[in-house]
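Protein Entry — a single chain follows
Next Lines — sequence and tokenised fold
***
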Amino acid sequence: MVHNYNLRIKTVIAIIVIAMAACGGSGSGNSDTGNGSSNMTKEKHEKIIASGYSDDLEWKIVGTTLIISGKGKMKAYALVDRPWYNYSNDITTLIIEDGVENITERVFERFPKLTSVTIPNTVEFIGRRAFACCEKLKSITIPSSVKIIREEAFIGCTNLTSINVDENNTEYSAEDGVLFNKTKTTLICYPLSKINATYSIPNTVTKIEQFAFAGNENLKSVIIPSSVEIIGENAFNTCGLTEVTNYAISPQHSYGSIFERTPIEQARLRVPADSKEAYKSATEWRRFAGIVAIDE
């Protein structure tokens, strides 16, 4: 019986050995094959598709990642003259490495698949429309080094829900994903895809920048404190507003339309009771369907 038992064991072992051989060898052999395949895939992904130099900076595209490195300032380009223009529809990741000092006007505009942006703590300037119309970008972080952000830097970013700022930045700040100057006296950018239906502007704000809320159709109601003195042109362009509450005693002045392409003719405006007549005669504000006292 012992002899038969041993024979059965040997038979089982032989079957296992034959099966492993049919699958490509031992377990360690399979592991090596997997690593080889992984390495080949990695090498394929790391292949440099395009590269070049721009003054003191170098750029290269690895897979779907654009990497900019070097020390110095980024060159300004016309939109179609950007060296990576022909690849802009495919880039998903942007990495700007330490040493780069600025991001020029419109330099990354219309990167429709861009989802990730890394800005180093050496960048001091972000130009006008630098990231405009990056439709897949959901969030972005401003490092402590940035001192200037030009207008419309993130306009048309239809999936942007949050702008974050390093707490050590001396010029800018963020609250609940909304971009302000450091002292929160100027509201600069309310992300286009922020989902809140109602937003109450902090009572520290004295100025709302042009295009600050532009394109956010989720926003149905906004409360403007009495501290706000200036509302920039197109501040609420193409919004979904159905009600605006404005605590200012005198209607704010703007050098252009505040509510362009926003159907305020179907919306309600709530203002201080003693100011109703002033708003009814103010060029921009009289377009509201109804102007009522705040306490009505």
